[in-house]
């Protein structure tokens, strides 16, 4: 009896020792936030330039903050309503009692990440332009390290939220206080619900910011460039301040919130899968080790991202290839090091007595390689350094129609490599994790899905630096605008143009990266949805439709009980609805940009015609009026598509039940992923095709070819900055909503 007591005590100590590893994750979050603050203070120490440069930057800052303040008011109302619904569900035992609060914290941290990133970007643009007066490398350093603030804030806040919630739920008995079990499966699926808060905030930020920025961009380009032949970011253009504000609210705040939820979602989904896959493991503490592994990989990814950030530098007069190599040096080094570290993490956690440690590690490597391939593919199809985009520029010789046709064709062709890459990655990650077994059973399925989840974590593990390359883009774009409006020397504008063109490519690469990771994460969330169904059945005391006890049911049992197969018409109807949602969502957001842009075009034309002296530079345009039009249009237009993404999964569950919801998620994932890649790459190619002409090819700026590519660019704007990048959030938000509403679905459905 004494021996049994000592064994039991020893096991408790081991589990406590393992749980304390979450403090390593907490330390990594503090490290990330500390370096973010250091880079931010370092950027503020740089000179902002002339009085005019300061004045322009202040206009952009005020416009961006005013928009964000208004957006957060609208989003707060939505969050309060949803939190109230979750509280009511908890009262009727359809959800546990802390979900509503977890949901609010996810949204809060997601919004906070976007806010800090945008604040940094609005202070960095003028300083980047001023640094570019010294050298190209000086401008790159300011812009990139300011972008790194966004990357490090996102990973720091996400890891802080994850580590904090895990330590609270695992060590305080909070779940027991609200009548829920405190086992690892319940803890991890409960933590998933704050992912819904992050996804909801991200969708509002992406859609609202995307509508704002593209309405201003299209209005500025169509009237200013094509009708009045004035340069981009010319201070005579009434929409130019709104355009620069839009770069920050859409491409910084929106992207920050977007990748916050991708990063957190991949870690949380994989933690839940680990708790499920190793629930019956005979090895002491193995389930807890599998739960901790994703966050530990992410924690080491923070340190390696910081190392990569310091490796990014270039020389004066560098062309696009050299600039891309400068960024690649940092991102590739971080990716290579995290791959090596991953083997050490799993060897330590899982032990080297079996092959499991290196097999699961290979799943992480698969995810990293998939991310690199998708990034390179996106770069090839969207950079003006390569033939595909150059051919789009070449098509401008026969007018804007052929520019649009060739861009659409390029976008469609560009889907092949990412889709095949993700498909191969899914299969390889699945096989690596389950010991390369092709036998379909519950154990292999659970382990394989854990491998897919850990591959998504691997792809996003160095987000600190990969997001820095993305957030860098709008900072460089704004720096170019500031240089133009301030009348800086031509060589300065040439340097900011080089940084801006690089930013367009890195932004397109970042979007491809986000979309690829969304596909892997969404697949992991499908399995997490089944786990939430299981917990909902246990909570209500029900059994599966086929009579199997929920607590003992495997993933295969659930598939059989709810008839989740392609011969079930309910599943097929769900697939069709999910596919439709991708196109319906894009249609709504595209039309929203069109309506807002139409108002902007009319306003810019009105000012040119009625305010005497604008074109001569003798009178100032009414910038505030254009900012107000974009703000109002974005707030009004973002509501319908965003709310639709929340209510469709709920009503699908109420009508079609579990099988219909799984069909919805599969259809949304498959169609949304391909459509998102197509739209992001087509839009990126149109943008850089214009840049290629502006570099002096096919007649250069002001030529007919230039005007044709401007039309292509304006068509591509909502493709790449509104509808396309919002799709990956839509995919995951529908999954998150389904998970949170699982209790309602199993208790009340029509079919």
Largest beta-sheet characterization: none
Name the beta content range.
Answer: under 5%
Taken from the alpha-carbon principal axes, the silhouette is globular
Sequence of secondary-structure elements: HHHHHHHHHHHHHHHHHHHHHHH
Helix content: over 70%
Q: State the end-to-end distance.
A: 54 Å
| Sequence stretches where pLDDT stays below 50 over 5 or more residues | 1-13
What does this structure look like?
It is a single chain. It contains 23 helices and no strands. It is globular. α3 runs parallel beside α20. It has helices at residues 2-19, 22-44, 51-91, 99-132, 136-171, 174-177, 184-227, 240-277, 286-310, 320-350, 356-382, 387-394, 400-413, 416-433, 442-460, 463-485, 490-540, 555-561, 569-610, 623-637, 639-694, 704-740, 742-747. With 751 residues, the chain is an all-alpha fold. 82% of the residues lie in helices and 0% in strands.
Layout of helices and strands, plus pairs?
Blueprint: H1 2-19, H2 22-44, H3 51-91, H4 99-132, H5 136-171, H6 174-177, H7 184-227, H8 240-277, H9 286-310, H10 320-350, H11 356-382, H12 387-394, H13 400-413, H14 416-433, H15 442-460, H16 463-485, H17 490-540, H18 555-561, H19 569-610, H20 623-637, H21 639-694, H22 704-740, H23 742-747
Helix pairs in contact: 2-5, 2-9, 3-4, 3-8, 3-20, 4-5, 4-7, 4-8, 4-16, 5-7, 5-8, 5-9, 5-16, 7-8, 7-19, 7-20, 7-21, 7-22, 8-9, 8-15, 8-16, 8-17, 8-20, 8-22, 9-10, 9-16, 10-11, 11-14, 11-15, 11-17, 12-13, 12-21, 13-21, 13-22, 14-15, 14-17, 15-17, 16-17, 17-21, 17-22, ...
């Amino acid at each position: 009896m004494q021996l049994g007591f000592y064994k039991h005590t020893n096991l408790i100590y081991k589990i406590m020792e393992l749980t304390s590893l979450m403090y390593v994750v907490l330390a990594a979050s503090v490290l990330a936030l500390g370096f973010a603050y250091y880079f931010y203070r370092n950027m503020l120490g740089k000179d902002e330039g002339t009085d005019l440069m300061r004045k322009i930057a202040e206009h952009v800052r005020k416009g961006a903050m005013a928009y964000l303040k208004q957006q957060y008011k609208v989003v707060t109302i939505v969050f309060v309503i949803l939190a109230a619904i979750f509280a009511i569900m908890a009262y009727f035992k359809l959800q546990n009692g802390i979900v509503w609060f977890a949901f609010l914290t996810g949204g809060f941290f997601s919004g906070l990440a976007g806010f800090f990133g945008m604040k940094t970007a609005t202070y960095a643009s003028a300083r980047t332009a001023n640094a570019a007066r010294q050298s190209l490398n000086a401008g790159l350093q300011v812009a990139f390290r300011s972008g790194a603030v966004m990357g490090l804030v996102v990973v720091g806040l996400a890891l802080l939220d994850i580590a904090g919630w895990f330590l609270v739920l695992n060590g305080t008995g909070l779940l027991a206080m609200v009548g829920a079990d405190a086992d690892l499966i319940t803890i991890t699926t409960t933590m998933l619900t704050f992912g819904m808060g992050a996804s909801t905030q991200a969708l509002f930020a992406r859609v609202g910011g995307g509508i704002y920025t593209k309405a201003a961009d299209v209005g500025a380009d169509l009237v200013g460039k094509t009708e009045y032949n004035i340069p981009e970011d010319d201070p005579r253009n009434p929409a130019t301040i709104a355009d620069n504000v839009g770069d920050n609210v859409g491409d910084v705040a929106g992207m920050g919130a977007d990748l916050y939820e991708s990063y957190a979602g991949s870690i949380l989904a994989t933690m839940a899968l680990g708790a499920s896959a190793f629930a019956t493991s005979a090895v002491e503490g193995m389930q807890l080790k599998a739960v901790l592994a994703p966050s530990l990989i992410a924690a080491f990814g923070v340190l390696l991202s910081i190392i990569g950030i310091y490796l990014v530098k270039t020389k004066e007069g560098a062309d696009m290839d050299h600039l891309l190599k400068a960024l690649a040096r940092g991102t590739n080094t971080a990716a290579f090091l995290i791959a090596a570290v991953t083997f050490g993490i799993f060897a330590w956690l899982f032990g080297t007595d079996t092959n499991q440690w290196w097999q699961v590690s290979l799943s992480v490597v698969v995810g990293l390689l998939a991310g690199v391939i998708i990034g390179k593919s996106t770069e090839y199809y969207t950079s003006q350094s390569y033939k595909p985009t150059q051919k789009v520029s070449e098509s401008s010789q026969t007018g804007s129609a052929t520019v649009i046709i060739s861009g659409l064709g390029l976008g469609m062709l560009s889907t092949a490599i990412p889709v095949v890459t993700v498909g191969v990655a899914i299969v390889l990650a699945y096989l690596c994790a389950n010991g390369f077994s092709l036998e379909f059973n519950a154990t292999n399925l659970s382990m394989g899905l854990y491998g897919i989840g850990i591959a998504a974590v691997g792809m996003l593990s160095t987000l600190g630096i990969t997001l820095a390359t993305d957030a860098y883009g709008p900072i460089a774009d704004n720096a170019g605008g500031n240089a133009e409006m301030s009348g800086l020397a031509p060589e300065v504008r040439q340097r900011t143009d080089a940084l801006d063109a690089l930013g367009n490519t890195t932004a397109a690469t970042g979007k491809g990266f986000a979309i690829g990771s969304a596909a892997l994460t969404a697949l992991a969330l499908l399995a997490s949805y089944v786990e939430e169904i299981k917990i909902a059945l246990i909570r209500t005391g029900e059994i599966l439709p086929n009579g199997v006890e929920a607590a003992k049911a495997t993933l295969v049992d659930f598939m059989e009980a709810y008839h989740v197969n392609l011969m079930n018409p309910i599943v097929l109807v769900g697939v069709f609805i999910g596919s439709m949602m991708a196109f319906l969502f894009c249609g709504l957001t595209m039309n929203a940009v069109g309506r807002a842009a139409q108002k902007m075009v009319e306003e810019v034309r009105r000012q040119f015609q009625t305010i005497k002296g604008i074109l001569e530079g003798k009178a100032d345009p009414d910038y505030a009026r254009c900012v107000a039009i974009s703000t109002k249009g974005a707030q009004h237009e973002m509501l319908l598509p965003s709310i639709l993404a929340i209510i469709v999964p709920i009503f699908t569950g109420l009508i079609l039940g579990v099988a219909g919801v799984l069909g919805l998620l599969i259809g949304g994932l498959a169609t949304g992923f391909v459509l998102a890649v197509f739209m992001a790459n087509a839009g990126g190619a149109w943008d850089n095709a214009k840049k290629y002409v502006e570099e002096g090819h096919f007649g250069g700026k002001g030529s007919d070819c230039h005007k044709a590519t401007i039309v292509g660019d304006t068509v591509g704007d909502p493709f790449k900055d509104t509808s396309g990048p919002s799709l990956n959030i839509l995919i995951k938000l529908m999954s998150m909503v389904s998970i949170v509403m699982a209790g309602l679905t199993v208790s009340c459905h029509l079919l």
